Amino acid sequence: MTLLVVGVSHHTAPVALLERLSVAAADTDALLGALAGQPHVDEAVVLSTCNRVEVYAGVNAFHGALAEIGSVLAERAGVDVADLVPYLYVRYDADAVRHAFRVAGGLDSMVVGEAQILGQLREAYGRAGDAETVGRLLHELMQQALRVGKRVHAETGIDRAGQSVVTAALALGAGDVAGRPALVIGAGAMGSLALATLSRAHAGPLYVANRGADRAARAAQLHGATAVAYGDLATAIADVDIVVSATASVDQVLTRDLVSAAVTGRDRPLVVLDLAVPRDVEPAVAELPGVVLVDLARLGDALIDSDAGVVDQAAAEEIVAGEVEAYLNWLRGSNVAPTVAALRARADEVVTYELRRLAQRRSDLSEEQRREVAHTVHRVVQRLLHSPTVRARQLAATPDGDQYAAVLRELFDLDVLGEDAADVGRAVGVEFLAEGGAR
Predict the structure, then answer these.
(1) Half-sphere exposure in the Cβ direction for 251 (13 Å, CA)
(2) Which of 244, 285, 372, 432 has the fewest CB atoms within 10 Å, counting from its CB?
C-alpha cells in the first residue's frame, strides 16, 4: 500500500479556493465516505483548517487514487479537476511522511511554530477513526505525527513566543491591545484561543457571542468574559475596539450593513479580524470609514513580506528528519513481515508433508519416535530459517530494502497475501490529473 497526501494550503491556493474546499465537522463523515468508497483508496483522513485542506490516504494504486481524490475534491469545490490542478500538491511515501511530520510540528503553518495544528490533526484522526476509514498505515502515521509534533514543541523553541494566527493577526491589525475592549464571535477552538490570547494581553473587558448560548456562557466563564446574545452583535460591536470572528458558519456573519450600523457615530477606529474559512466578514466591510479589516488573505501576504513568525527552525527540522528516517525504517521492516511469514508457512507445509509421507512408509515407528522426529525436523528448519529471516528484516529497513523481500518471494515462489503490486508511478505528479484521470 502506498501513502499519498493530496491537498491545498495557503502556500498554493487563494483563500477563495480554500473556502470552497473547507470541510465543516458536520460534513466530514460524508467526505470520508466518498473518499473511502473509491476503488483505489483504502484508508483516508481529512485535515481541514483555516489555511489547509488535505487528504491523507492509503492507496492501492497511485494513478487511480490520485485521480479519484482529485475528482472528489474538485466536486466539493464545484470546479473542474483541470482548474484545481494548479493549486494542488501531491506527496507520496517518504515525502508524505515528511510532510505529515512537518505539518504536525507547525513547520508548514502560516505562522511557523503554531501549536493549534496538533489539536486539529488529532481531531481529524479521531473523526476518521470514528468513520472507520483508517487502517494500519494511517493509524501508525497519525500516531507518529502527533508524537513528533509534541516532541518538536517540547524540545525546541519553535513556539516560545506563543505564536498563532490570532497573535499574528492582532499584531498586524491592532498592535497593543492592553486595556482595549474586545468581542470574540465564535466559541470553538479558534474563538477560545482568541479569548485566551486577548486575556493574556490584558485586553478588556472581553465579550463573546456564539449561536449556541450555552457554549458562549462556558467560554465566557473560562476566560473571564461576558457572554452576549448572538442577535445583539451590532450593539456589542459598538462598544468594543476589536472584533475577532472565528465561527464555523457557511454564511457571512458580519455584513457591511451590520458593521456600518455599529460604527455610525463612533470617534475611534474598529479593528475586525476575520479568522474563519469560509470568511465570516463581508469584504466590503473594509470600505467603511474607521474600520480596519484583517482576513487570512491579508495576514498571509503580510507574513510573506515580513519576518513575522520566522524562528530558528534548524533544531525542529533536524528532529523531523530523524523521525522520518526512523519511521521509514520501521515501515520497510514491517513490509517484509508478510514475506517472512509466508516463507515460514511454506517451510511448515513442506515439513508437514514429509512427516506424513514418513508416517505412511514407517508405520512401525512408535508415537514417541514420531514426536521426536517431528520435533527434530522442525528445529532444523527453524534454525536454518532464523538467520536469513532476521537478516531479511534488517536489510529491509535500509533504503531500497524492499528488493530483499522481492528476492525471497521470487526464490521460494511465495504468494504473499496483501502484497502491494501496484505501479505507483513515482515520477508522476499532479499533472497526471490534468491528463484525464485514472488509467
Answers:
(1) 3
(2) 372
Yes or no: say if 60 and 36 are a contact pair by the CB < 8 Å rule.
no
Q: According to the annotation, is 109 in a ligand binding site?
A: yes
pLDDT of residue 259: 93
Residues serving a catalytic function are 50
Q: Which of 202, 199, 194 is nearest to 170 (CA)?
A: 194
CATH topology assigned to domain 2-161: Beta Polymerase; domain 2 (3.30.460)
Angle, helices 25-36/116-130, rounded to nearest 10 degrees: 60
Q: In the chain, where does the domain assigned CATH 3.40.50.720 lie? A: 165-304
C-alpha dist (Å) from residue 297 to 34, 80, 173: 30, 23, 13
Q: What topology does CATH give the domain 165-304?
A: Rossmann fold (3.40.50)
- 435 or 1, higher pLDDT: 1
Q: Of 403, 408, 406, which Cα lies nearest the Cα of 388?
A: 408
**pLDDT at 439 (0 to 100):** 38
Contacts (Cβ under 8 Å, ≥6 apart) of 228:
183, 207, 208, 209, 216, 235, 236
**Is 114 labeled as ligand-binding?**
yes
At 241-264, the pLDDT tens digits run 999 999 988 888 999 999 999 988
191 is in an annotated binding site: yes
Taking 90 as the threshold, does the pLDDT of residue 124 lie above it? yes
Output the pLDDT for position 160: 58
The cell for 211 is: 449561536
In the chain, CATH 3.30.460.30 sits at 2-161
Phi, psi of 27 (to 5 degrees): -95, -5
Cβ neighbour number for residue 236 with a 10 Å cutoff: 20
